[in-house]
Each structure stands twice: as structure tokens, then as C-alpha cells.
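I have been asked to look over a protein record a colleague put together. What it holds is a sequence and that sequence's fold in C-alpha cell form. Please read both lines and tell me whether the C-alpha cells look consistent with the sequence. I do not need a full report, just your reasoning and any doubts. This is what I was given:
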Amino acid sequence: MLQIAQYRSEQFDGVRELWEEVFPNDPPWNRAERALPEKLAVQPELLLVATIGDTVIGTVMAGYDGHRGWLYSVAVKPSQQRQGVGSQMLGEAERRLADLGCGKINLQVRAGNEAVTAFYRRHGYEMEERVSMGKRLTN
């Protein structure tokens, strides 16, 4: 049975393996070894893991700065995609953000990832005319 709950440290290997499978070309700063400890230091209750039994099949990281909410690392094991796991994780993350007073959620999708863009559109997300900019302070 599918369960979605806050991340637990014993799930580290499962999350790392999932992210390596779903995000194979992610840069080092997005990998589990770095991203999980950083997230656990800030709003750890917004790091959610979907499991069936003891097997990690999905993740979502959310954040709220008091003005906007953000979603990161939404991932579902390919063998479990198109079965509602991503939709349930998204709904739980949205609920937790709303409970914090969040009125708007932002996310970024890599250009050309039409399947993921379509997923978010089905859940009410819209393209916004913005220029995404970033600056790395650490590598």
C-alpha cells in the first residue's frame, strides 16, 4: 500500500537510488548526498517520501519562505509512473504548504521536458512569463 510521509534517515539509500535513476544528469549540488542534509536543516517536514512497503518510489521537496512556496525533486520511480503516485505526492505537498499559509507555489521544469510540463498543467499549474536566473554561491 502506498504511503506518503516525512523523510526518515533510513530512507537515504532509496532516495539516492531513485534520484540517480530519475535525474541521471543532475549536477553534484542536487544529488542526495548534498541536498538531503541541506533540506533536513530547513523545514524537514516538507521533504516527503512515497513508499510501498520499505521501497522508496517517490519524493517531493517543498519550501516556503513566507511569500511563495516552491517544489523541488518531484520524482517517481519509472515503473510506478502514471499510477497516481506523483499526483498524490503533489497534493500532499500542496496541502502542507497551504497549512503554512502559502498562497502560491512556484516550480521550475527543464526546457524540453514536455511530459513533466503536461503533468503539472493537468494539476492546474500554468506557464508564467518569467526569466529564471540563478547564481551559485557554492559548488
Q: What stands out?
A: The radius of gyration is 15 Å.
